[in-house]
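Field log, afternoon session.

UNIT: design team B
ACTIVITY: writing a sequence onto a fixed backbone
BACKBONE:
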């Protein structure tokens, strides 16, 4: 696990009482009809593509037919041109089938903003992943793998796999989590992309990479990782890249970062996946929801990488770039795991009281989960990782009306626990209303079994 910066500012955290009511409701409250995806779009798939004949378009047509997916075409890298039609359809899943040279961090930022801006709330409006390969044969093979309907029981399931030696040991796994310092073409002191490409992975694993830059598909900005300005990107040959060689070797899914990130980000995805056996789109969507929950309410968009432009180098911005640069290379609707591998780290109950007209969301910690509770987006400008408890809670249909200021109470063994920060973001998804809630505190306070967090909202007509 690693960080791309070691010279950032620190600030002591201000601690607020855990029971205090926190500010006014956040913006982003929209009507159910205006939310995306639409209710009728749940389970629906749209393919966005710029592929031409000979670039894997035949494989995309096969995929779209099998998934009953609409295809929206765009030219070159102008994916934003699909926004109006994508909003009209309102699908749950979006597959971005493109040439590898289409995707760099700036294109991915376009996708993130498209994903966030189809409706008026600040949270994702669909789940998305990329289908990319170095040639049409690899693209067809990848599509064939993700269209398999069988789910795996995942044996054996290691905690961490080392990308070392010849790599032949990787053939026995259904799922792989690895860490290490990384470059677009290798894991330092480990396997290179070219070595990965020579492997045969008959179990078609899903790989969770915790190594920096291992998600690069063409242009890489790794030369300016430690610089204060952006430098010109470097184009990496397809036969050297970790991403495209994993696809060639036979993976069915791959999650990694286009930028310098932290291993804890891959761990968050891994822990979430193990606990829920959900679609891969939900896994990467969890990462994006955590990021979007932390963004300021007046957020205008992700700063583009322009050579010569100054970089934002606060600890928060470095971590945010790494976090949102994580991508899924697979069908986002693909569910490769047959059943959860872990018991839930937290349980959540939501209750609406029509007499008092209050909505209560209560979270209880059952066990420590490093991936889900270690907060790598600290309160600016702190350089310290604290802890987080996050929940996405469905609002009961009976709770009709806007929500007022929440009263937040954090308890452990009948004692109040102080927290440092709270986030609330409204979301409409599939015709239902959700609350994205998060509290933060220094280590040792909120990750213990038995900790409870209760949010109590007045429901206003």
């Amino acid at each position: 696990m690693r960080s791309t910066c070691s010279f950032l500012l620190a600030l002591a955290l201000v601690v607020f009482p855990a029971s205090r009511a926190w500010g006014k409701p956040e913006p982003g409250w929209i009507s159910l009809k205006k939310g995306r995806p639409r209710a009728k779009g749940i389970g629906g798939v749209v393919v966005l593509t710029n592929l031409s004949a000979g670039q894997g378009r035949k494989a995309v047509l096969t995929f779209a037919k099998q998934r009953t997916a609409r295809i929206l075409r765009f030219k070159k890298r102008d994916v934003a041109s699909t926004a109006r039609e994508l909003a009209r359809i309102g699908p749950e899943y979006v597959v971005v089938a493109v040439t590898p040279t289409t995707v760099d961090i700036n294109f991915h930022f376009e996708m993130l903003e498209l994903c966030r801006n189809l409706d008026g709330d600040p949270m994702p409006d669909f789940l998305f992943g990329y289908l990319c390969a170095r040639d049409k044969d690899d693209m067809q093979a990848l599509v064939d793998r993700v269209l398999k309907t069988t789910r795996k029981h995942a044996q054996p399931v290691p905690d961490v796999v080392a990308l070392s030696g010849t790599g032949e040991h990787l053939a026995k796994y259904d799922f792989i989590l690895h860490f290490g310092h990384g470059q677009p073409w290798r894991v330092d002191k480990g396997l290179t992309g070219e070595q990965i490409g020579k492997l045969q992975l008959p179990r078609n694993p899903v790989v969770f990479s915790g190594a920096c830059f291992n998600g690069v598909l063409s242009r890489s900005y790794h030369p300016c990782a430690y610089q204060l300005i952006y430098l010109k990107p470097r184009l990496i040959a397809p036969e050297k890249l970790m991403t495209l060689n994993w696809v060639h070797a036979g993976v069915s899914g791959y999650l990694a970062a286009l930028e310098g990130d932290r291993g804890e980000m891959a761990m968050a995805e891994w822990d979430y996946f193990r606990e829920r056996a959900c679609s891969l789109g939900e896994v990467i969507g969890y990462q994006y929801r955590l990021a979007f929950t932390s963004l300021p309410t007046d957020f205008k968009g992700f700063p583009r990488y322009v050579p010569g432009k100054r970089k934002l180098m606060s600890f928060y911005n470095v971590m945010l770039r790494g976090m949102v640069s994580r991508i899924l290379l697979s069908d986002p609707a693909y569910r490769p795991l047959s059943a959860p591998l872990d018991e839930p780290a937290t349980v959540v109950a939501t209750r609406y009281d029509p007499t008092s007209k209050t909505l209560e969301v209560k979270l209880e910690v059952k066990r420590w989960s490093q991936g889900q509770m270690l907060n790598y987006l600290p309160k600016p400008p702190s350089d310290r990782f604290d802890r987080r408890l996050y929940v996405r809670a469905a609002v009961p249909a009976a709770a009709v009306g806007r929500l007022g200021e929440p009263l937040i109470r954090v308890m452990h063994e009948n004692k109040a626990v102080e927290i440092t920060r709270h986030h609330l973001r409204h979301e409409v998804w599939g015709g239902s209303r959700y609350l994205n809630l998060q509290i933060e505190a220094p280590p040792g306070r909120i990750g213990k079994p038995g900790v409870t967090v209760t949010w109590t909202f007045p429901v206003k007509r």
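LOG NOTE: The longest helix spans residues 280-294.
NEXT ACTIVITY: expression trials, pending approval
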